[in-house]
Amino acid sequence: PSQAGLPPPPSPAAPPVLQQLRGLATLPAELQQAIAENALALVYQPIRRCADGSVAAIETLLRWHSPGRGPVAADVFIPVAEETGLIVPIGAWVLRQACGAAARAGGSWRLSVNISPVQFSQPELVPLVAGILRDTGLPAERLMLELTEQMLLSRFPSAAEKVRKLRAMGVSLALDDFGAGFANLAALRDIRFDLLKLDRSVLRLTAAQRGPVLASLLQIARAFDLPSVVEGVEQSEDWALARQLGSDYAQGYLLGRPQHDLGEALALPVPG
Ligand code: C2E
Ligand code: MG
Ligand code: MG
Ligand code: MG
């Protein structure tokens, strides 16, 4: 049959998404340079107890201020770091810096550090954590690692075995962003976590949806005997809902924005 009736091929003018992709092409080299020039920095955000607003933990978040681009969002450069393997040295640097800062600051709050699935899959992960705890003097009981359900893809040794080793050392493990991925129940069944972090997208549902959905996710946490954190608390209504539905912890801009100074993150006032 004739092709004459087919629509014309798409216009060759580059749509904005392609222009953005061209900008992305040089990101790996720029990120490599950022590491060499110490242009990466850490910020610290409090995780508060719902009961009294006190700081239970501090999450470490990575920041990149590029001289050419300005601040580059973690959601943009972390995937680049993962694809290039740069996340392995970057992640080790994050862990060492944060553990050192937490050890110097003292106190009994937990330090929480995000671990990429790529970093988690490295056979050296457990010895790396052990070595950093030894070098910095941070007690293992004060360290929490945040993992996502993608960690289940990790093999040799299995994710479950790595988690067992870390927990045997005294390190705790959080399952991050629950509800944003596949909300994989196998992750909760097969791996013993200490904390379930409910993704902030839950609070961005409609007013009619978020109460019931949050209540259901909190029930899942209880079914697995896990304390929970509600992420993305921005409004006083979010904070009220998290407390009313019985979450153990909450985190978000209302409860403290990420701070460059760890001491400042610990000293932020509790909202009313
Ligand atoms: P995450 O681990 O779920 O971290 C929480 C993200 O939510 C952070 O974004 C934080 O700044 C943001 N956030 C906190 N409170 C609020 C709020 O009330 N409203 C809104 N809209 N956002 C809030 P950030 O720092 O841009 O990080 C994004 C993601 O990048 C993180 O999600 C984590 O998956 C990854 N990431 C950040 N730092 C590191 C790191 O050092 N290592 C690894 N592997 N991943 C990291
Ligand atoms: Mg996290
Ligand atoms: Mg999260
Ligand atoms: Mg996230």
List the helices and strands in order: HHEEEHHEHHEHEHEHEHEH
Query: Span from first to last CA?
Result: 72 Å
Number of E strands = 9
Q: Give me the oligomer status.
A: single chain
Helicity, as a percent range: 40-55%
Shape: globular
The secondary-structure class comes to alpha/beta
Could you say which small molecules are bound to this protein? ligand C2E, magnesium ion
For the largest beta-sheet, the strand count, sense and barrel status come to: 8 strands, mixed, barrel
With strands numbered from the N-terminus, the spatial order across the biggest sheet is 1-2-4-5-6-7-8-9
Which stretches of 5+ consecutive residues score pLDDT under 50?
none
Describe the structure concisely for a colleague.
The protein is of the alpha/beta class.
Description:
This protein is an alpha/beta fold and 272 residues long. The chain has 11 helices and 9 strands. It has helices at 16-25, 27-36, 74-84, 87-105, 117-120, 125-136, 159-169, 185-190, 207-223, 236-244, 262-267; strands at residues 40-49, 55-66, 70-72, 110-114, 143-147, 172-178, 195-198, 228-230, 249-250. It has an 8-stranded mixed barrel with strand order 1-2-4-5-6-7-8-9, surrounded by 5 helices. Helix 4 (87-105) packs parallel to helix 6 and helix 6 runs parallel beside helix 7 (159-169). The mean pLDDT is 91. The protein binds ligand C2E and magnesium ion (3 copies).
